Amino acid sequence: MLMNHATYSKFKETTFKGRYVVNEQVGDFLETLNSDFKVEIVGYSVEQRLIRAVTMGTGTQKVLMWSQMHGNESTTTKAILDLLKLLQSDNPLAVSILKNCTLKIIPILNPDGAEAYTRVNANEVDLNRDAQERSQPESKVLRDVYESYQPDFCFNMHDQRTIFNVGNSSNPATISFLAPSHDAERTISNSRAISMQLIAAMNTELQELIPGQIGRYDDGFNANCVGDTFQMLNTPTVLFEAGHFPEDYEREKTREYIFYALLKALLCIGENEINSYPQQDYFAIPENKKLFFDVIIKNAHIIDSSYTKDIAILYAEVLEEQKIIFQARIQKAGCTEGYFGHSTYDCANENDFSALKKQSFWNVLQS
């Protein structure tokens, strides 16, 4: 294991917590970086917010990473800031990375979406479906940075919903990875093979920390997706998906595991260890399935006779006064056999029923 929790805690940027992370906060943090970190404005969003990039390191291996392409996916941004804090230190892992790699990071590609806490940008366009047309200023910024920087590796950083489990198990997909396809046949090009090996390396590290909680994302080809496009351009590209860890809706634990994944990937690249990890180990990672609800309530007819059997709830993430509120919404009524709940209550159990009545969503169940 490269780093333990106690050591990580020394580098966690504590001014960032929760799910709402916006451009102004990140800009303030970037101003604290020392002169070895080059911060530049690489473009502007639809609403003329700054899009910043920070470059560091002197190594020959060039890595480009970007986060919050979807404005409401901020977990990886927090992990990136923790990484930057580590890289400012004299920790031997930081020294190795900066000696062997040069990193260019765009912490928030979609600052308008981050401000409004939406997936899309201010023109209501999903930037991860705009890689070919590049109709949006943010899409053009990313492509311009890619073409001018000519990276050897790309890291495309995202969050995924709480619905994902790993394979057929009841384990949440706390982190998922994807080596994007470069054609409709999903063939394995040289760049895609390298992506797979790099994911296998990160999976080896993470299995020691969260065994059984790493998934493999669907590899259906879509040329409009940025990862697929960069893979088509023969740049090894990895999609990171930050998911749910039990009782961690603020995603502070997931943030830590993304940090470890980034650390492993960069060391693996810098120390030329990618070929130590067989390509087939990527396929040993179980595929994601969508079998989770946030809450499952069994025997719901005890609450209200209009319910036939069970109720399944998903939380909607709602921005209120610069904080994300998780609002319960009934997603399914009926049999929930074969599904899992991050929380489960059986109304036929007195203790469960008593605990359920204390939950903030109790009124939703009675309406």
From TrEMBL:
One of its GO terms (biological process) is proteolysis. Gene3D superfamilies: Zn peptidases. Pfam families: Peptidase_M14. GO terms for molecular function: metallocarboxypeptidase activity; zinc ion binding. Residues 16-265 form the Peptidase M14 domain. InterPro entries: Peptidase_M14 (IPR000834). PROSITE patterns: PEPTIDASE_M14. CDD domains: M14-like. Belongs to the peptidase M14 family. This is DUF2817 domain-containing protein. It comes from Maribacter algarum (ex Zhang et al. 2020).
